[in-house]
Amino acid sequence: IEVARAPIDQEALSGKTVLIPDASQDTRLRYPDKVAAEGIRTILSTPLLSKRGAIGVLRAYGGSAHRFSQDDADFLAAIAAEGSVAIENARAYQLLENLDREKSQFVRMVTHELRSPVQVTLSLLNVLGRGYVGALNEKQSDLVDRAYRRLRFLQTLIDDLLDLAAGKADVLATAERGLVSLTDVLREVNERYEAPAHDKGLALRCKCPKSDLPIWGDRSELDRIINNLVSNAVKYTQEGEVRVLAEQIDGFARVVVSDTGIGIPEDALPELFQEFYRAQNAKEIKETGTGLGLAIVKDLVERYDGTIEVESKVSEGTTFTLTLPLADALFA
After folding, report:
1. Rounded to whole angstroms, how far apart are CA atoms 96 and 224?
2. Residue 295 gets which letter from DSSP?
3. How far is C-alpha 141 from the chain's CA centre?
4. Residue 134 DSSP SS3
5. 312 to each of 67, 197, 231, 288, how far by Cα in Å?
6. What are phi and psi for residue 4, nearest 5 degrees?
7. pTM for the structure as a whole
8. pLDDT tens-digit map of 101-155
9. pLDDT at residue number 210
10. Which of 143, 119, 118 has its CA nearest to residue 129?
């Protein structure tokens, strides 16, 4: 309805509640014949007011003349006030979603363009470092090695940004899905980090059920979740052990990754899953990180209707608890 053209609604849009006690006697109706044909005898109109002004009109109709009182007008105005807030919040939320999606699409475009030259440069530095175009002296070799390490970090950042932006742009949601054995994923990730853990003198223990933990999803996404949690545990643990426990609880798979590492400060826990965030004690050690891994993990876990929680104490260790619905429960 084009409310701006209706005389009654023009009054309401000016900011006041309009009560028509008898529609058959009111000359302000734009379509009196249609109103009468529908059996409408009284009309109550009140504006929907936002911070920027009127955004619409809320109407109530009665089948008999003089149906509404001033109390009804006050009640409808109160409803309109609540409705205006809800509409404004919904519009703001939609705007933020659109902006976030556009930002992610921009990030995907830019990082995709960066990936190719970075990979080419890495290959060229690798050729230089291996001496294929002539031997390097010690200083030259050090400079090439430092440049290579910085570019490797840049490549990791680009890959993380692409993964994060893909999730925000709903690319991951359209990934090909099927039955995936979470048990197999856990064992593969454990094998992947046995050597790095051993090199640091850490014990890496993985306890999985003998039976499969079937998840309806994409194998690479599930690998990304588990890989990030285990890699962080190994990265930020200087001595002791990293433990991975998986079990089935009702219709869910529960995975607990715990370590005896540096821990996370209490004030950092609420920010841990934010993009680009790294706790101060994590920055102070030599290990590098993009600050995007856990943000990607949280995004993926939520897409699987799962949950992830963290408990930690500085210098004592960290425990991540991941819960994902099993495929059997989803299709029961």
Report:
1. 27
2. H
3. 42
4. coil
5. 63, 20, 17, 20
6. -65, -20
7. 0.61
8. 777 777 777 777 777 888 888 898 989 988 888 888 999 999 999 998 888 888 8
9. 85
10. 143
Pairing of strands 241-249, 203-207: parallel
C-beta of residue 297 within 8 angstroms of C-beta of residue 225: yes
DSSP 213-241: -EEEE-HHHHHHHHHHHHHHHHHT-SSSE
Greater model confidence, 109 or 26 = 26
| DSSP H helical ranges for the chain | 7-13, 32-37, 70-129, 138-168, 182-199, 219-235, 280-284, 293-303, 327-330
Report residue 270 as tokens. Answer: 């609420």
Phi and psi (nearest 5°) for 170?
A: 65, 25
> Is 183 within 8 Å of 318 (Cβ atoms)?
no
**CB 206 within 8 Å of CB 186:** yes
Angle, CA 131 vertex, CA 128 and CA 136 arms, to 5°: 80
Name the token pair of 302. 């939520």
Q: How many CB atoms lie within 10 A of CB 146?
A: 11
Question: Are 297 and 275 within 8 A, CB to CB?
Answer: no
Residue 326, SS3 per DSSP: coil
CA gap 329, 237 in Å, rounded = 36
Q: What are phi and psi of 209, to 5 degrees?
A: -70, 155
